Here is the input.
Amino acid sequence: MSVSTKQKLKGFTDVEVELIEKAREAGQLAESELATSELNASVSQNFVNKLIEAGITRANLPKEYGGPQISLRGLGEIVRTIAYHNISAAWVGYFFPLHNSLPAHLPQEGRDEIINSGDLIVDVFAPIGQVTVVDGGIRLTGTYNYTSGVKFAKWIGLGAIAQLPESDRPEFIMGFMRKDEVQVNENWDTFGLRGSGSNQVVATDVFIPRSRVLRLEVANDTRRPPAGSNYDPDYSYYHVPFFSAFYLGFPNMALGGAKRLIDEYKKRTEARVRLHGENEKDSPRSQRILAHLMLEYKKANGLMEQYYDLLATYETEGPYEKGEFASIRAEIIKICQDIATTVMVSLGGASLTKNETIEVFVRDIIAVATHITSLYEDALYTYGRNLYGYQGIGWG
Here is the structure.
């Protein structure tokens, strides 16, 4: 490991540094398979196996299950590291450890059942399912799009609005079922993030026991596991607002991809000779562009650090408004989107080759910006309303 790399990873635990280095190896594998994953609309089983073997998919489980229980900042660095090589792979590499942490908010029986199975989890939060409350649980029916990485998972969590017996009103929930209980339709054919394999699932009157029903609003409001479930006060997803902590991977994907594009810009301008004979690295134009890109990246990186600080101090110095979290994420991603398009248009026609690094990374960063948790106008609207004392939209 180089001196500069060691300096960059200062502040992470030894376990986190090891996982970050394994994430780099996984990212390099995904980069070597980039064209294939674009064609197949999915990362490979080899890449997912690499995540599993490295322990990344179990990195954010409560330590009672034998995992390292890394920090939120550690997970963010893993995501950013993979994204430097392949943003679609980072999407999947983020969601598997993230989604595998969801059972920590379930009743103990369901938590043990899912985590001890050792299988991967995917989910769709959109509360579009129709729920019937029955003895011992619920029955859920619905068609859900954007189930990222579903090809490799055995468990699926699906969102819905339902009034449970213990609640006095309808609330936002997620029910977990086995993949063999739903139908998977391969319909993922998109502009960006093609390698995420975010296909459609259809649930038809699937029974879900109460032990596998996650009360999302309760988890967000209490920042604790359900009563009667094991509580580890050091667990990274307790003491923080659930949704704001859950969404931290998206800006890190954009940051990892933006840094790669800046490095590509520097490398390609150093080797570029214009038609009039000038070496592009000697041009004030490219020198100014590179300086601007680096300053914008540093600005976005600083905002990410503030985001981590807000999470870390939420219960001691907060609470903070959900709009502040949303707007910081959206601003980071917007900066990275601007970096991406500036790199593409500044490099000229050579950046347009299909399935080549520049073209894929630009598309993928734009696709990250389209995610519901990244929408710039929604985020600023919510933050602005919060600043005037009103409620905004979204969950954080």
